Amino acid sequence: MRNQLQSTTTTDVAPRTARKADSPPNSAETRPGILRITHEPAEVARARAWIKARIAAAARPIDAETADDILICAGETITNAVVHSRPRVPGDTITVTMTVHPETVRVEVTDTGDPRGRGPHVRDIAPELESSGRGLRIVQELSAAWGHNGDGDSRTTWFEVGC
């Protein structure tokens, strides 16, 4: 579903569905799938392929437009984790979690955070000539809800797409 959210904060945006974004899974939901990737740019493609396979294997069909929205949002959030976080110790990974709920698909990307302590944020409008800076604006537009949370050791950026 394409959404035209007008949000002023990125820390926790309420979903349009009746289920709260932080509510525990119920028996109608599938178990979350978890993938761990390294901080290498090539891992973004591997994570997208994994998400695409999970969409195809979902217990109920997910239409092509919704699948595209999920893959685009996932690509943006995973790319942000690869680009803006750094492993604190050798072997640190980025964790991608995907859960298919009855009315939404939720993807969470957990990383070691920005070494400067900044959280994800939607930039105002990126100038036309910039090659980056539009990712979270895209996530905001395509998702039913999105947000982030974290502490000094990790950060999770999540989104939900209605289906």
Automatic annotation (TrEMBL):
<keyword id="KW-0067">ATP-binding</keyword>
<keyword id="KW-0808">Transferase</keyword>
<dbReference type="GO" id="GO:0005524">
    <property type="term" value="F:ATP binding"/>
</dbReference>
<keyword id="KW-0418">Kinase</keyword>
<dbReference type="InterPro" id="IPR036890">
    <property type="entry name" value="HATPase_C_sf"/>
</dbReference>
<keyword id="KW-0547">Nucleotide-binding</keyword>
<dbReference type="InterPro" id="IPR050267">
    <property type="entry name" value="Anti-sigma-factor_SerPK"/>
</dbReference>
<feature type="compositionally biased region" description="Polar residues">
    <location>
        <begin position="1"/>
        <end position="12"/>
    </location>
</feature>
<feature type="region of interest" description="Disordered">
    <location>
        <begin position="1"/>
        <end position="32"/>
    </location>
</feature>
<protein>
    <submittedName>
        <fullName>ATP-binding protein</fullName>
    </submittedName>
</protein>
<keyword id="KW-0723">Serine/threonine-protein kinase</keyword>
<dbReference type="InterPro" id="IPR003594">
    <property type="entry name" value="HATPase_dom"/>
</dbReference>
<dbReference type="Pfam" id="PF13581">
    <property type="entry name" value="HATPase_c_2"/>
</dbReference>
<feature type="domain" description="Histidine kinase/HSP90-like ATPase">
    <location>
        <begin position="38"/>
        <end position="143"/>
    </location>
</feature>
